[in-house]
């Protein structure tokens, strides 16, 4: 059975490397999956019986995932020929939200029958394809979950609806600064990332720039969201730019005019970084 091409060099190398390394972290149960013979495969998953040869089929790479029966998404191409299930490589592909989805997986026997019945539409070749029930075959992934984009939109809507966040220039900022159980709201740089709740992160340089641009025109909103009092010492929090920790301090300098003065201090001195303790205001990780 010949090797099949992946969509990109990175994806091809990733799956090829796992195949060469014995399929990565395959469990004992996965390693014991039986290989399937061509005759049995044809009899089980194709309309023709083992005694009636299938016509030659050519693998086709589709421009995007195919949607079958209103619920089953099919990856646009084959990803390699494997003796075991390449689960760790699939996990990496999902982490990258390949084709806007992060729920790609090996098809079940029932799903493989659907793929075989729609072979010309999804571009299946004349190979044995992997299923959860057997090993030794070509990998064509399927997905039935929500797309990564749909999941992000759902989380965003929930965060905004319950008042945990506020949208500023397209970014959802937390309404409250991070605080410990004792009420401490000041942290050193090496605590900043570890204090992030799941699904949140430190703002980046572009998000801080957008924040300053928006609030330079609307200090009242700044005061409302970040709790900054007129004439006070301002609010400082950590952000990251090109892997470097920096601090941003926001001031309101005049209550009556509502003007905003913004100072951004870059922490480059190691002794200052080690001693500084400021706030953490996170953004939704989208």
Overview of this protein structure:
The protein is an alpha+beta fold and 286 residues long. The protein is 31% helix and 16% strand. The strands form 5 sheets. The chain has a 3-stranded antiparallel β-sheet with strand order 1-2-5, with helices on one face. Strands 9-10-11 form a 3-stranded antiparallel β-sheet. A two-stranded antiparallel ribbon has the order 3-4. Strand 10 and strand 11 form a beta hairpin. Helix 1 packs antiparallel against helix 4. The N terminus is likely disordered.
What would you say about this model in short?
It contains 11 helices and 12 strands. With 286 residues, the chain is α+β, with helices and mostly antiparallel strands. The chain folds into 2 domains: 9-143, no CATH class; 148-284.
Write the layout of secondary structure elements.
Blueprint: H1 9-20, H2 28-31, H3 38-45, E1 66-68, E2 72-74, E3 81-82, H4 87-95, H5 109-117, H6 119-122, E4 137-138, E5 142-143, H7 148-161, E6 165-168, E7 171-174, H8 189-192, E8 200-201, H9 205-215, H10 219-226, E9 235-241, E10 244-252, E11 260-265, H11 270-275, E12 283-284
Antiparallel strand pairs: 1-2, 2-5, 3-4, 6-7, 8-12, 9-10, 10-11
Question: Main attributes?
Answer:
alpha+beta, single chain, 286 residues, 16% strand, disordered N terminus, three-stranded antiparallel β-sheet
Number of helices: 11
Strand ordering within the main sheet:
1-2-5
**Mean of residue pLDDT values:** 77
* Number of domain units: 2
Give the helices and strands as they follow along the chain.
HHHEEEHHHEEHEEHEHHEEEHE
Structural class: alpha+beta
Question: Would you identify the regions where 5 or more consecutive residues have pLDDT less than 50?
Answer: 1-9
* Radius of gyration from the alpha-carbon trace, in angstroms: 26 Å
Total beta-strand segments: 12
User: From the structure provided, what is the oligomeric state, counting identical versus distinct chains?
Assistant: single chain
Query: Beta-strand percentage?
Result: 15-25%
Strand count, sense and barrel status of the largest sheet are: 3 strands, antiparallel
What is the rounded distance between the termini?
41 Å
Q: Please give the share of residues in helix.
A: 25-40%
In one word, what is the shape?
Answer: elongated
């Amino acid at each position: 059975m010949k090797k099949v091409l992946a969509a990109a060099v990175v994806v091809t190398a990733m799956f090829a490397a796992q195949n060469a390394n014995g399929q990565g972290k395959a469990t004992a149960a996965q390693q014991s999956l039986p290989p399937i013979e061509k005759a049995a495969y044809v009899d089980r998953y194709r309309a023709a019986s083992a005694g009636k040869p299938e016509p030659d089929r050519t693998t086709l790479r589709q421009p995007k995932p195919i949607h079958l029966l209103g619920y089953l998404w099919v990856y646009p191409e084959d990803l390699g020929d494997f003796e075991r299930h390449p689960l760790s490589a699939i996990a990496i592909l999902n982490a990258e939200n390949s084709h806007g989805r992060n729920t790609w997986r090996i098809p079940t026997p029932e799903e493989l029958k659907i793929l075989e019945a729609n072979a010309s539409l999804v571009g299946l070749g004349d190979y044995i394809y992997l299923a959860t029930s057997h090993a030794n075959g070509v990998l064509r992934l399927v997905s039935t979950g929500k797309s990564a984009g749909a999941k992000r939109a759902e989380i965003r809507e929930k965060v905004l609806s319950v008042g945990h966040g506020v949208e500023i220039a397209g970014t959802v900022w937390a309404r409250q600064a991070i605080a410990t159980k004792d009420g401490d709201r000041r942290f050193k740089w090496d605590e900043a990332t570890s204090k992030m709740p799941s699904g949140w992160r430190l703002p980046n340089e572009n998000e801080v720039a957008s924040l300053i641009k928006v609030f330079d025109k609307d200090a009242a909103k700044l005061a409302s969201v970040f709790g900054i009092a007129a004439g006070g010492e301002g609010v400082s929090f950590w952000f990251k730019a090109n892997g470097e920790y920096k601090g941003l301090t926001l001031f309101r300098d005049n209550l009556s005019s509502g003007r905003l003065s913004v100072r951004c201090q870059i922490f480059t001195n190691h002794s200052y970084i080690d001693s500084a303790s400021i706030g953490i205001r996170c953004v939704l990780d989208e």
